[in-house]
Amino acid sequence: MEELWKFIKVWSFVFIALSYCYFVPSRIPKGIFRLLSIIPILYLFIILPWNLDTNLLRGPTTLYLVWLGNFNLLLFSFGKGPLSPKDRPVSFLNFLALACLPIKIKQTSKNNNNSSLESSERPPLRLAIKVLVLGILTIGCAHKESIHPKLLLFCYCGYLYIGLEFTLLAVGVTTAKLLNLETEPVFDEPYFSASLQDFWGRRWNLMVTNSLRVIVYEPVRKWGQLPAVTATFVVSGIMHEIMFFYLIGVKPTWEVTLFFIFHGFCIGLEIKVKKLVNGRWTLPLMVSRPLTIGFVILSSFWLFFPPLIKGGFDEKISREIVACLDYFSMQTTHCD
After folding, report:
1. Apex CA 221: angle with CA 219 and CA 225, to 5°?
2. CA count, 13 A, side-chain hemisphere, 306
3. d(Cα 308, Cα 323) in Å, to the nearest integer?
4. pTM of this prediction?
């Protein structure tokens, strides 16, 4: 309960800080002077997550404030990004939500209403399957001593994907319903990815992808596609390294940065190969999809998960989940 009050306190500061950004810096001309007026908020967002002790709350808060929030405020300083749309003013509540929550307002047209309706009929089944899988993975991770280490890494992959998707989806859907917004999906079934470009650019954690595209890829794109891809993955690696530091609190090993640089290099090769074959030859989806997901999973075994495991993140998050389940079970028993 004490941690919950800390969480409320942190997000009360966020509300005050973003209210200031809406009413004060927004009236300063975009550029260096608006940036100077926002720098104290950038610093505040960096230190606020340290007030939380549990990774279940500190992890998402770090993502929302240190990554999404600070990136969006930097863009806002120069009149870019979701806080500075060119076609309409942003209301106060929308500004608060778009600043640091995982939502992107969907651009709709009358022509695609039918297709969006058809695509919305299937998700409930997929959602139910994911809930079932997450439950199985939770039980498995709670008894990891009886699971082979390699199989446990597969469990971590599934747990990371479904847990992250549910966390971002819950926040995004709740916010969208409260503000009556139609939003873009946070994930787009990444297990259907037919290439690394497809995985990172169009299916995995699209809110982070969008922020990196606007703040890194598009400015560097004028020097060429490959430099833009490389710069994007370097920044992504550094930001993930920072996220890991918040989660495990140990000196960075730079393995996760290398993971993203490696994937950026592989996407560069993929782009070159696609240009060479020029559409004359493509792998069947039944081949390209398993190859893509297999490559992502195996490379994550090599570089992504080891720092988290060595830092004890898996054990800590398991204890926190069990503690949460015990707490809710106890509350349910008292209610009965």
Report:
1. 155
2. 14
3. 20
4. 0.89
Residue with tokens 């606020």: 48
Please give the radius of gyration of the chain, using alpha carbons only, rounded to the nearest integer: 21
Q: Which residues contact 134 (CB under 8 A, 6 or more apart)?
A: 158, 159, 162, 163, 166
- pLDDT tens, position by position, 200-231: 999 999 999 999 999 999 999 999 999 999 99
CA pair distance 119, 314, nearest whole angstrom: 35
Provide the CB-side half-sphere exposure for 37 (13 A, CA). 19
Cα–Cα distance, 250 to 286 (Å, whole number)? 41
Instruction: Give the mean model confidence (pLDDT) for residues 96-116.
Output: 70
Nearest Cα to 230, choosing from 208, 254, 257, 248? 257
E strand or H helix at 159: helix 149-179
CA distance 195 to 207: 19
Tokens of 262: 């490696």
Whole-angstrom Cα distance, residue 35 to residue 119?
Answer: 41
Are 126 and 200 within 8 A, CB to CB?
Answer: no
In tens, the pLDDT along 76-96 reads: 999 998 998 887 788 999 999
Residue 95 neighbours by CB under 8 Å, 6+ apart: 18, 21, 22, 83
Of 91, 79, 90, 92, give the one whose Cα is nearest residue 35: 79
The C-alpha angle with vertex 296 and arms to 250 and 312, in degrees rounded to 5, equals: 25
